[in-house]
Design goal:
Blueprint lengths: L1 E3 L2 E3 L2 E2 H9 L1 H8 L8 H15 L3 E3 L2 E11 L4 E11 L2 E8 L7 H17 L5 E6 L4 E6 L2 H20 L17 H4 L1 H17 L10
Helix pairs in contact: 1-2, 1-4, 1-5, 4-5
């Protein structure tokens, strides 16, 4: 925990931000219940990150490349690790490695959280970074706009509430579940149907008020 004034605040793992953005229930299963199952996508991702983390730091002229760099922010209560940070003359430039092609904004939020940490750690502005996608072998640059920063900070607050209260949101049972490695642990369809049945039962068997002639 970090100290926020006179109160301690729960540290939020940077990786949880992408999990929450994709599915709050997935985030809770991983970070509250410590549940993690693997499928093809997570195995590919783990192997890709192992290759990145196993590399050494590099110096190429004015460019210093740092790998598996620990990150933290006391201000935002964040902690985690960056795949790669390029220390350029203009300032830090984080690069997050992803297995699949670019298709969503979830990774942008995680990368933005890294930037918030780097700004606090180095005192330098971090206006942009990039995600590198193994599927295309290309980088996609991400600009850390005010809107993206605000969204990242807001999600961090929501995750902290979840961790503080140890809450696990209800399942969504939609298209996201098809590629989720936690589908077997989550049982989204069964749990969603159970919640629906409970709501239906509560309406069907509502007790009558005392004295009701019916």
């Amino acid at each position: 925990m970090t100290t926020d004034g006179d109160q301690e605040q729960t540290l939020v793992p940077i990786s949880a931000i992408e999990h929450w953005s994709y599915c709050p229930r997935q985030c809770a299963l991983i970070h509250v219940e410590q549940t993690f199952d693997e499928n093809l996508y997570t195995i590919r991702g783990r192997l890709a990150h192992e290759r990145v983390d196993s590399g050494e730091d590099e110096v190429d002229g004015d460019l210093v490349v740092l790998r598996a760099l620990p990150l933290w922010s006391d201000r935002h209560g964040l902690v985690g690790k960056a795949d790669v940070v390029e220390m350029r003359p203009s300032g830090p430039y984080p690069v997050e490695y992803k297995v699949g092609p670019p298709h969503s904004h979830h990774a942008d939020l995680q990368l933005c959280a890294q930037a918030l940490c780097l700004e606090e750690m180095t005192g330098s502005k971090v206006p942009r970074g990039a995600t590198y996608h193994h599927a295309t072998r290309r980088r996609r640059e991400v600009v850390f706009s005010r809107a993206l920063r605000d969204a990242t900070i807001a999600i961090t607050g929501e995750i902290r509430k979840m961790l503080d209260f140890q809450e696990v949101p209800a399942p969504v049972a939609d298209s996201r579940c098809r590629s989720c490695s936690l589908a077997d642990s989550c049982q989204p369809t069964a749990m969603h149907d159970l919640d629906a049945r409970r709501r239906w039962d509560s309406g069907l068997f509502r007790p009558l008020p005392l004295g009701d002639p019916a």
